[in-house]
Amino acid sequence: MRGDPSDDVVRSYYRMRQALGYLGLFLPVTLILGGALSLGRVEPSISDYYHTLLRDIFVATLAAIGVFLICYRGHARAGAERLSDDRVTTVAGIAALGVAFLPNATGGGLATFSQDMLGPRVAAAGHYLSAIVFLSCLGWLSLVRFARTRDARRRRIYRACGWLTAAMTAATVAASWFKVMGPPGPQAVVNGGRLVLWFEAIAVWAFALSWLVKGRAGLPLAAALRRRRGGTPGAA
User: pLDDT for 158-174, tens place per residue?
Assistant: First the structure.
């Protein structure tokens, strides 16, 4: 029997949300462990892995996240709302691509295409701006859009993830300033403690958890659609 198209849509959204969640979950873990095993060190920030042997993982994962976010439509605007899920995720996806393809600094050797076209300073400024926009959009989604659920437990999770993303974004901005331009003492503390890396990682993990929970939220609807058309709850 032909499947219900609405069921296919629900499952497609489930898979996309789960993919976004798992990509965010494993990106910091893969970079940190991969750097420790292959390079014998942990970089001061996630962005600094662009200039290491793990560049392919850094760029490919962020590019995948960016494409998924651009393709994600979500819910339409309701009433007098100015922003839809689609608009916010598109901006976040473009920002993710900016983080991936605009290096945060010159790693030595040949410049990248973006650095060659824009100049290292402009490319680095674009990288930092893209990172702020990316995390801010994801935090807004968790706090404003996802938290509208009627499920109190999920609402608490979304709000916690949103506030954590916002707090870690602010902490990342402050720590990044000290990392690049701060006085020697605080700069040594930030770089030695890898504070930017951990602030970024926590923000990304919060975003990942939010999307993983959001993905699971659609499963009851998919099961109801299968029951309505006479299928079994566990049907693929």
Answer: 999 999 999 999 999 99
Q: Are 196 and 190 in contact (CB under 8 A)?
A: yes
Q: Say how many domains are in the chain.
A: 1
**What's the 3-state SS for 78-126?**
CCCCCCCHHHHHHHHHHHHHHHHHCCCCCCCCCCCHHHHHHCHHHHHHH
**232 falls within a domain:** no
The span from the first CA to the last CA of the chain, in angstroms, equals 13
C-alpha neighbours within 13 Å on the C-beta side of residue 213: 22
- Asked, for residue 163, whether it belongs to a domain, the answer is yes
CA dihedral 136, 138, 142, 143 (to 10 degrees): 10
- The predicted pLDDT at position 57 comes to 96
Neighbours of 187 (CB within 10 A): 16
Quote the pTM value: 0.83
Domain of 82? 5-223
CA distance 125 to 54: 22
Chain segment 10-59, per-residue pLDDT in tens = 677 788 889 999 999 999 999 999 999 998 999 999 999 999 999 999 99
Provide DSSP, 149-165: -S-HHHHHHHHHHHHHH
Evaluate whether residue 54 is within a structural domain: yes
